[in-house]
Amino acid sequence: MKPRHAVLIVGATALALAAVVLAAHRAKHELVDVPRARAARFAGAELPPGVRTPAFALRDQDGRLVTSSSLRGRPVVVTFLYTHCKDTCPITAQQVKGALDDLRRPVTAIAVSVDPPNDTPASARAFLRKVGMEGRMHFLLGSRRQLEPVWRGFAIRPQHPHQEHQARLVLLDARGMQSVGFPASQATPERLAHDLRALGAQ
Asked: Rounded to an integer, what distance in angstroms lies between the CA atom of residue 9 and that of residue 114?
């Protein structure tokens, strides 16, 4: 073999070995970094940045005024319920309760009525007592005209005689932005609590 050919073969072998070492090094770091990146993400679906909470001023089950601006400064969990619901709504409220129980400090919980003709202060109070959320959740009530802008702002389909409402939870950050969304079927106390902590809850 000519010396020139030998040099080329040795050089090619060295390059191939370097490529293998580099690929192994990258693979090692990717295996380390993937779980770390996953851990940093929300358990729910991260919403596009800049989605504000719709402006509202509504009364809760006890007649207290709750406004969108009053929710700023801390993470908030918002869900959409109706008081005569027998299955999804009580379960959703229990998921929120479990998440709040997992946190060291109180977090504001809001339920927005999706059935204004039938959701009354009395029925809202009875619902909250039944699910163990009395004193821990504001059940916001109002007329259809008052609630429609809120439903639109959260992309919620309300209750209809021939169609079940959209069962969903939204987590707000301290700026009042819609940050994380959960279909009710995918929400668990652990996942909700995890994402509330990621938004700054304790």
From this structure: 74
> Do the Cβ atoms of 108 and 74 come closer than 8 Å?
yes
Question: Are 200 and 174 a contacting pair, CB within 8 Å?
Answer: yes
Mean pLDDT, residues 121-129 taken together: 98
CA-based torsion, 59, 160, 150, 180: positive or negative: positive
* 173 within 8 A of 49, measured Cβ to Cβ: no
What gap in Å lies between CA 70 and CA 22, rounded to an integer?
54
Q: What is the pLDDT of residues 146-181, one digit of tens each?
A: 999 999 999 998 877 767 777 899 999 999 999 999
pTM: 0.78
- Alpha carbon distance 19, 109 (integer Å): 54
CA trace torsion 119, 125, 131, 134 (10° rounding): 140
Q: What is the CA radius of gyration of the chain?
A: 25
CA distance 30 to 26: 6
Provide the strand spans (E) within the chain. 45-46, 57-59, 65-67, 76-81, 108-113, 138-140, 168-172, 178-183
64-97 tens-digit pLDDT: 999 999 999 999 999 999 999 988 999 999 999 9
Q: Residue 100 burial by CB count (10 A; 0-12/13-18/19+): exposed, middle or buried?
A: buried
Amino acid at 138: H
